[in-house]
Amino acid sequence: MQTIVKGDSALINTLAELCPAEGVSHTEDQDGNAQHWFKLSSPDKLIAAASALKDKAARLSLISGYVRQDTDEADGKLFAACYHFVLDGCVYNVTANTTKEMPYVPTITSYFVNADWHEREMMELVGVKVQNQPNPTRLFLDTELEPGVIGSYIPLSVMMNGACTKDLWEHILGSKEVK
Fold this sequence. Notes:
Layout: H1 9-16, E1 24-28, E2 34-39, H2 46-55, E3 59-67, E4 79-87, E5 90-97, E6 105-106, H3 115-125, E7 130-131, H4 150-153, H5 156-162, H6 167-173
Parallel strand pairs: 2-5, 6-7
Antiparallel strand pairs: 1-2, 3-4, 4-5
């Protein structure tokens, strides 16, 4: 039986050319919505990916920055940034992993203006470095705090999972009694 991949085949092929063979996969969610996953061979390939997506009129939905768990301690703290784009009901997820040689991702604000906020948030809260970000000012935290420091106090995943419940505040307050 032949597998049918939903989405823009020309775009899928263009993005796949920027990745190693094992860096491309296609899935569907429980409702049958296509999800395409592209792990770029190098962070500098992000510019070509952004250009291809812009040419097809894709929409940048969000960027997820996180500390990579697949690295040696000798490499230091390395990050990944997953850019989530939507085009004709399909999601195109493009991941750029920072490396010891290239410890940053390039900005894509010249292709997607809304990347400005996402990049700044990722720089501030996670500590991902974004090369040539045109507006690198802080959004939330005091400038004297180290970028990504909030993760050492409370992981972003815990914060996001508890944002709508009392769990977050219980974690922050610990054993303090709230009156």
